[in-house]
Amino acid sequence: MPARNRMRSGFRSLVALASLVGVTANVAAAEPLKVGFLYVGPASGAGWSYAHELARRKVQATYGDKVQTLFVEKVAEADSERVVRDLVAQGAQLVFGAAFGFMDGMVRVARDHPEVAFEHATGYKTSPNLGIYDIRTYEGACLNGVIAGRMSKSGVLGFVAPFPIPEVVRNLNAYTLCAQAVNPKVTTKVVWINTWYDPVREREAASALVDAGVDVLMQNSDSPSPLQVAKEKGLVGFGWDTDMAEWGGDAQMAASRLDWSVHYNKVVADVLAKRWKPGNVWLGLRDKAIIYDTFSAKLPAEVKALVETRKADIISGKRPVFQGPIVAQDGSVKVKVQADLPDADKLKMNWLVKGVQGNLPK
Q1: pTM of the full predicted structure?
Q2: Is 251 left (phi over 0), alpha (psi -120 to 50) or beta?
Protein backbone atom coordinates (compact mmCIF):
# COMPACT_ATOMS: atom_id res chain seq x y z
CA MET A 1 0.00 0.00 0.00
CA PRO A 2 1.39 3.44 -0.92
CA ALA A 3 2.52 5.52 2.03
CA ARG A 4 -0.08 8.17 1.33
CA ASN A 5 -2.90 5.58 1.41
CA ARG A 6 -1.51 4.14 4.61
CA MET A 7 -1.53 7.63 6.13
CA ARG A 8 -5.15 8.18 5.02
CA SER A 9 -6.16 4.80 6.41
CA GLY A 10 -4.44 5.58 9.71
CA PHE A 11 -6.13 8.98 9.87
CA ARG A 12 -9.55 7.42 9.32
CA SER A 13 -8.84 4.92 12.13
CA LEU A 14 -7.88 7.75 14.46
CA VAL A 15 -11.09 9.61 13.59
CA ALA A 16 -13.14 6.48 14.20
CA LEU A 17 -11.38 5.90 17.53
CA ALA A 18 -11.92 9.51 18.54
CA SER A 19 -15.60 9.20 17.66
CA LEU A 20 -15.89 6.03 19.73
CA VAL A 21 -14.22 7.72 22.69
CA GLY A 22 -16.63 10.63 22.32
CA VAL A 23 -19.64 8.33 22.28
CA THR A 24 -18.35 6.51 25.36
CA ALA A 25 -17.84 9.81 27.14
CA ASN A 26 -21.36 10.92 26.25
CA VAL A 27 -22.82 7.63 27.49
CA ALA A 28 -20.89 7.99 30.74
CA ALA A 29 -22.09 11.56 31.14
CA ALA A 30 -25.66 10.49 30.52
CA GLU A 31 -25.64 7.70 33.10
CA PRO A 32 -28.51 8.23 35.55
CA LEU A 33 -28.05 9.13 39.18
CA LYS A 34 -28.63 5.94 41.17
CA VAL A 35 -30.77 6.58 44.24
CA GLY A 36 -31.29 3.88 46.86
CA PHE A 37 -34.14 3.60 49.40
CA LEU A 38 -34.38 1.35 52.47
CA TYR A 39 -37.76 0.52 54.02
CA VAL A 40 -38.34 -1.14 57.37
CA GLY A 41 -41.70 -2.57 56.24
CA PRO A 42 -43.32 -3.75 53.00
CA ALA A 43 -43.32 -1.45 49.97
CA SER A 44 -46.96 -2.18 49.21
CA GLY A 45 -50.27 -1.97 51.01
CA ALA A 46 -50.38 0.89 53.51
CA GLY A 47 -48.47 2.74 56.18
CA TRP A 48 -45.02 4.25 56.69
CA SER A 49 -42.94 2.26 54.23
CA TYR A 50 -45.62 2.45 51.54
CA ALA A 51 -45.66 6.24 51.93
CA HIS A 52 -41.92 6.29 51.19
CA GLU A 53 -42.45 3.96 48.24
CA LEU A 54 -45.08 6.27 46.77
CA ALA A 55 -42.56 9.10 47.10
CA ARG A 56 -39.86 7.04 45.37
CA ARG A 57 -42.22 6.51 42.44
CA LYS A 58 -42.81 10.26 42.26
CA VAL A 59 -39.05 10.85 42.14
CA GLN A 60 -38.70 8.40 39.27
CA ALA A 61 -41.61 9.98 37.41
CA THR A 62 -40.31 13.50 38.01
CA TYR A 63 -36.73 12.93 36.83
CA GLY A 64 -37.23 10.17 34.27
CA ASP A 65 -34.02 8.85 32.75
CA LYS A 66 -31.92 11.24 34.84
CA VAL A 67 -32.29 8.88 37.78
CA GLN A 68 -32.48 5.18 38.50
CA THR A 69 -34.18 4.41 41.80
CA LEU A 70 -33.58 1.22 43.76
CA PHE A 71 -35.34 0.05 46.92
CA VAL A 72 -35.07 -2.72 49.48
CA GLU A 73 -38.10 -3.49 51.62
CA LYS A 74 -38.55 -5.27 54.96
CA VAL A 75 -35.03 -4.39 56.10
CA ALA A 76 -34.33 -5.49 59.67
CA GLU A 77 -32.79 -2.59 61.55
CA ALA A 78 -29.89 -4.81 62.67
CA ASP A 79 -29.20 -5.66 59.01
CA SER A 80 -29.38 -2.12 57.67
CA GLU A 81 -25.62 -1.53 57.42
CA ARG A 82 -25.16 -4.53 55.14
CA VAL A 83 -28.04 -3.44 52.93
CA VAL A 84 -26.72 0.13 52.65
CA ARG A 85 -23.27 -1.17 51.70
CA ASP A 86 -24.86 -3.38 49.06
CA LEU A 87 -26.71 -0.41 47.53
CA VAL A 88 -23.46 1.55 47.40
CA ALA A 89 -21.76 -1.45 45.74
CA GLN A 90 -24.53 -1.37 43.12
CA GLY A 91 -23.54 2.21 42.33
CA ALA A 92 -25.97 4.20 44.46
CA GLN A 93 -24.72 7.77 44.74
CA LEU A 94 -27.56 8.87 47.03
CA VAL A 95 -29.14 6.67 49.72
CA PHE A 96 -32.24 7.36 51.83
CA GLY A 97 -32.77 5.29 54.99
CA ALA A 98 -36.42 5.46 56.02
CA ALA A 99 -36.36 4.20 59.62
CA PHE A 100 -34.98 5.39 62.95
CA GLY A 101 -33.11 2.13 63.57
CA PHE A 102 -31.07 2.48 60.36
CA MET A 103 -29.18 5.44 61.83
CA ASP A 104 -26.02 3.90 63.29
CA GLY A 105 -25.46 1.63 60.31
CA MET A 106 -25.75 4.57 57.95
CA VAL A 107 -23.28 6.58 60.03
CA ARG A 108 -20.67 3.85 59.59
CA VAL A 109 -21.24 3.45 55.85
CA ALA A 110 -21.21 7.23 55.31
CA ARG A 111 -17.82 7.40 57.06
CA ASP A 112 -16.42 4.77 54.68
CA HIS A 113 -17.92 6.32 51.52
CA PRO A 114 -17.44 10.10 51.54
CA GLU A 115 -18.22 10.18 47.81
CA VAL A 116 -21.85 9.13 48.43
CA ALA A 117 -24.66 11.33 49.79
CA PHE A 118 -26.70 9.76 52.59
CA GLU A 119 -29.94 10.93 54.23
CA HIS A 120 -31.60 9.34 57.26
CA ALA A 121 -35.25 9.76 58.27
CA THR A 122 -36.16 10.59 61.90
CA GLY A 123 -32.61 10.35 63.21
CA TYR A 124 -30.32 12.83 64.94
CA LYS A 125 -26.77 11.89 63.91
CA THR A 126 -25.14 13.75 61.01
CA SER A 127 -21.76 13.86 59.26
CA PRO A 128 -20.19 15.71 56.31
CA ASN A 129 -22.09 13.42 53.91
CA LEU A 130 -25.07 12.36 56.07
CA GLY A 131 -28.14 14.54 56.51
CA ILE A 132 -31.35 13.94 58.46
CA TYR A 133 -34.96 14.64 57.58
CA ASP A 134 -38.38 14.13 59.10
CA ILE A 135 -42.04 15.10 58.90
CA ARG A 136 -43.90 16.62 61.85
CA THR A 137 -46.23 13.66 62.10
CA TYR A 138 -47.46 14.98 65.43
CA GLU A 139 -49.43 17.61 63.50
CA GLY A 140 -51.51 14.88 61.87
CA ALA A 141 -51.83 13.14 65.24
CA CYS A 142 -53.22 16.38 66.66
CA LEU A 143 -55.91 16.53 63.99
CA ASN A 144 -56.77 12.90 64.70
CA GLY A 145 -57.13 13.93 68.33
CA VAL A 146 -59.62 16.67 67.48
CA ILE A 147 -61.81 14.08 65.79
CA ALA A 148 -61.29 11.47 68.50
CA GLY A 149 -62.18 13.91 71.28
CA ARG A 150 -65.49 14.74 69.64
CA MET A 151 -66.38 11.25 68.38
CA SER A 152 -65.62 9.27 71.55
CA LYS A 153 -68.64 8.37 73.66
CA SER A 154 -66.65 6.75 76.47
CA GLY A 155 -64.03 9.50 76.64
CA VAL A 156 -61.35 6.80 76.47
CA LEU A 157 -59.07 6.74 73.42
CA GLY A 158 -56.67 4.02 72.36
CA PHE A 159 -53.15 4.25 70.91
CA VAL A 160 -51.12 1.35 69.49
CA ALA A 161 -47.48 2.40 69.94
CA PRO A 162 -44.40 0.74 68.42
CA PHE A 163 -41.36 2.04 70.35
CA PRO A 164 -40.91 4.73 73.06
CA ILE A 165 -38.77 7.01 70.90
CA PRO A 166 -39.41 10.79 70.76
CA GLU A 167 -41.25 10.55 67.42
CA VAL A 168 -43.86 8.18 68.84
CA VAL A 169 -44.06 9.99 72.20
CA ARG A 170 -44.77 13.27 70.36
CA ASN A 171 -47.58 11.66 68.40
CA LEU A 172 -49.15 10.09 71.50
CA ASN A 173 -48.97 13.38 73.40
CA ALA A 174 -50.28 15.43 70.48
CA TYR A 175 -53.19 13.03 69.99
CA THR A 176 -54.13 13.33 73.66
CA LEU A 177 -53.66 17.10 74.00
CA CYS A 178 -55.70 17.96 70.92
CA ALA A 179 -58.48 15.58 72.00
CA GLN A 180 -58.53 17.22 75.43
CA ALA A 181 -58.79 20.63 73.77
CA VAL A 182 -62.27 19.68 72.54
CA ASN A 183 -63.13 17.32 75.42
CA PRO A 184 -61.17 18.00 78.64
CA LYS A 185 -62.24 14.69 80.21
CA VAL A 186 -60.53 12.54 77.56
CA THR A 187 -57.90 9.98 78.56
CA THR A 188 -55.73 7.81 76.32
CA LYS A 189 -54.76 4.20 76.96
CA VAL A 190 -51.56 3.02 75.24
CA VAL A 191 -50.20 -0.43 74.41
CA TRP A 192 -46.53 -0.75 73.39
CA ILE A 193 -45.83 -3.52 70.85
CA ASN A 194 -42.07 -3.10 70.24
CA THR A 195 -42.31 -3.42 66.47
CA TRP A 196 -43.08 -1.13 63.57
CA TYR A 197 -44.87 -3.72 61.49
CA ASP A 198 -46.56 -6.86 62.75
CA PRO A 199 -50.24 -7.11 61.76
CA VAL A 200 -50.92 -9.87 64.31
CA ARG A 201 -49.44 -7.99 67.27
CA GLU A 202 -51.07 -4.76 66.14
CA ARG A 203 -54.44 -6.50 66.03
CA GLU A 204 -53.91 -8.02 69.47
CA ALA A 205 -52.99 -4.63 70.93
CA ALA A 206 -56.03 -2.95 69.36
CA SER A 207 -58.33 -5.69 70.60
CA ALA A 208 -56.92 -5.38 74.12
CA LEU A 209 -57.59 -1.64 74.04
CA VAL A 210 -61.18 -2.20 72.94
CA ASP A 211 -61.64 -4.71 75.77
CA ALA A 212 -60.37 -1.99 78.13
CA GLY A 213 -63.18 0.39 77.12
CA VAL A 214 -61.59 2.32 74.25
CA ASP A 215 -63.96 3.42 71.47
CA VAL A 216 -61.55 5.33 69.16
CA LEU A 217 -58.31 3.74 67.95
CA MET A 218 -55.15 5.30 66.57
CA GLN A 219 -51.97 3.48 65.61
CA ASN A 220 -48.41 4.67 65.12
CA SER A 221 -47.56 1.28 63.65
CA ASP A 222 -47.58 0.45 59.93
CA SER A 223 -50.42 -1.92 59.17
CA PRO A 224 -54.15 -1.21 58.99
CA SER A 225 -54.90 -3.96 61.54
CA PRO A 226 -56.00 -1.56 64.33
CA LEU A 227 -58.33 0.20 61.91
CA GLN A 228 -59.75 -3.17 60.85
CA VAL A 229 -60.44 -3.95 64.52
CA ALA A 230 -62.27 -0.63 64.84
CA LYS A 231 -64.40 -1.46 61.81
CA GLU A 232 -65.22 -4.95 63.07
CA LYS A 233 -66.22 -3.61 66.50
CA GLY A 234 -68.36 -0.78 65.12
CA LEU A 235 -65.89 1.83 66.38
CA VAL A 236 -63.79 4.46 64.59
CA GLY A 237 -60.11 4.97 63.78
CA PHE A 238 -57.70 6.58 61.37
CA GLY A 239 -55.49 5.98 58.39
CA TRP A 240 -51.88 6.63 59.37
CA ASP A 241 -49.15 7.71 56.91
CA THR A 242 -51.36 6.60 54.00
CA ASP A 243 -55.07 6.28 53.26
CA MET A 244 -56.33 2.99 54.75
CA ALA A 245 -59.98 3.21 53.73
CA GLU A 246 -59.51 0.06 51.64
CA TRP A 247 -59.37 -1.83 54.96
CA GLY A 248 -61.31 0.46 57.28
CA GLY A 249 -64.09 1.77 55.06
CA ASP A 250 -66.13 4.47 56.79
CA ALA A 251 -64.62 3.48 60.14
CA GLN A 252 -61.66 5.55 58.97
CA MET A 253 -62.70 9.02 60.09
CA ALA A 254 -59.69 10.64 58.39
CA ALA A 255 -56.24 9.81 57.08
CA SER A 256 -53.04 11.68 57.84
CA ARG A 257 -51.07 11.05 54.64
CA LEU A 258 -47.34 11.74 54.29
CA ASP A 259 -45.78 13.02 51.08
CA TRP A 260 -42.05 12.39 51.37
CA SER A 261 -41.52 13.42 47.75
CA VAL A 262 -41.55 17.05 48.91
CA HIS A 263 -38.12 16.34 50.40
CA TYR A 264 -36.88 13.60 48.07
CA ASN A 265 -37.40 15.62 44.90
CA LYS A 266 -35.48 18.57 46.32
CA VAL A 267 -32.55 16.44 47.46
CA VAL A 268 -32.30 14.67 44.09
CA ALA A 269 -32.33 18.06 42.34
CA ASP A 270 -29.55 19.28 44.63
CA VAL A 271 -27.40 16.19 44.06
CA LEU A 272 -27.86 16.41 40.28
CA ALA A 273 -26.86 20.08 40.40
CA LYS A 274 -23.89 19.24 42.68
CA ARG A 275 -25.11 21.64 45.36
CA TRP A 276 -26.30 19.14 47.97
CA LYS A 277 -25.25 19.68 51.55
CA PRO A 278 -26.36 17.57 54.53
CA GLY A 279 -28.99 19.31 56.62
CA ASN A 280 -31.60 18.86 59.33
CA VAL A 281 -35.01 19.13 57.66
CA TRP A 282 -38.37 18.94 59.46
CA LEU A 283 -41.42 19.42 57.25
CA GLY A 284 -45.12 19.58 58.10
CA LEU A 285 -48.58 20.73 57.11
CA ARG A 286 -47.22 24.12 56.04
CA ASP A 287 -44.87 22.42 53.56
CA LYS A 288 -47.62 20.11 52.24
CA ALA A 289 -45.63 17.13 53.46
CA ILE A 290 -48.72 16.14 55.49
CA ILE A 291 -51.95 15.89 53.53
CA TYR A 292 -55.04 15.88 55.73
CA ASP A 293 -58.07 16.04 53.45
CA THR A 294 -59.42 12.48 53.38
CA PHE A 295 -62.56 12.20 55.53
CA SER A 296 -65.27 9.62 56.11
CA ALA A 297 -68.75 10.42 54.88
CA LYS A 298 -69.83 9.60 58.44
CA LEU A 299 -67.74 12.37 59.99
CA PRO A 300 -70.13 15.09 61.22
CA ALA A 301 -69.77 18.41 59.40
CA GLU A 302 -69.20 20.33 62.63
CA VAL A 303 -66.30 18.03 63.58
CA LYS A 304 -64.73 18.42 60.15
CA ALA A 305 -65.03 22.19 60.55
CA LEU A 306 -63.16 21.99 63.89
CA VAL A 307 -60.40 20.00 62.18
CA GLU A 308 -60.09 22.51 59.34
CA THR A 309 -59.85 25.38 61.83
CA ARG A 310 -57.16 23.65 63.89
CA LYS A 311 -55.26 22.74 60.73
CA ALA A 312 -55.29 26.36 59.59
CA ASP A 313 -54.13 27.49 63.03
CA ILE A 314 -51.22 25.04 62.98
CA ILE A 315 -50.15 26.17 59.51
CA SER A 316 -50.35 29.85 60.39
CA GLY A 317 -48.63 29.39 63.75
CA LYS A 318 -51.62 30.86 65.58
CA ARG A 319 -52.08 27.73 67.66
CA PRO A 320 -49.16 25.27 67.64
CA VAL A 321 -49.73 21.69 68.72
CA PHE A 322 -47.56 21.97 71.83
CA GLN A 323 -48.71 25.38 72.97
CA GLY A 324 -48.99 25.72 76.75
CA PRO A 325 -50.08 25.17 79.32
CA ILE A 326 -48.98 21.53 79.18
CA VAL A 327 -48.79 19.36 82.29
CA ALA A 328 -47.00 16.00 82.40
CA GLN A 329 -48.22 12.82 84.08
CA ASP A 330 -46.22 13.63 87.20
CA GLY A 331 -47.88 17.04 87.52
CA SER A 332 -44.89 19.08 86.40
CA VAL A 333 -45.51 21.98 84.02
CA LYS A 334 -43.66 21.29 80.80
CA VAL A 335 -44.90 24.31 78.82
CA LYS A 336 -46.11 27.56 80.33
CA VAL A 337 -49.26 29.42 79.29
CA GLN A 338 -49.21 30.59 75.65
CA ALA A 339 -45.62 29.40 75.16
CA ASP A 340 -44.72 26.94 72.41
CA LEU A 341 -42.42 24.02 73.13
CA PRO A 342 -39.11 24.61 71.27
CA ASP A 343 -38.22 22.16 68.51
CA ALA A 344 -35.11 21.09 70.44
CA ASP A 345 -37.36 19.89 73.28
CA LYS A 346 -39.81 18.22 70.91
CA LEU A 347 -36.95 16.26 69.36
CA LYS A 348 -35.94 14.74 72.71
CA MET A 349 -39.43 14.35 74.20
CA ASN A 350 -39.36 11.57 76.79
CA TRP A 351 -42.38 12.36 78.97
CA LEU A 352 -46.12 11.77 78.70
CA VAL A 353 -48.85 14.35 79.15
CA LYS A 354 -51.45 14.20 81.88
CA GLY A 355 -54.30 12.03 80.69
CA VAL A 356 -52.18 9.29 79.09
CA GLN A 357 -52.71 6.03 80.95
CA GLY A 358 -49.59 3.91 80.78
CA ASN A 359 -45.86 4.39 81.26
CA LEU A 360 -42.89 4.79 78.96
CA PRO A 361 -41.07 1.43 78.72
CA LYS A 362 -37.42 1.51 79.73
Answers
A1: 0.90
A2: alpha
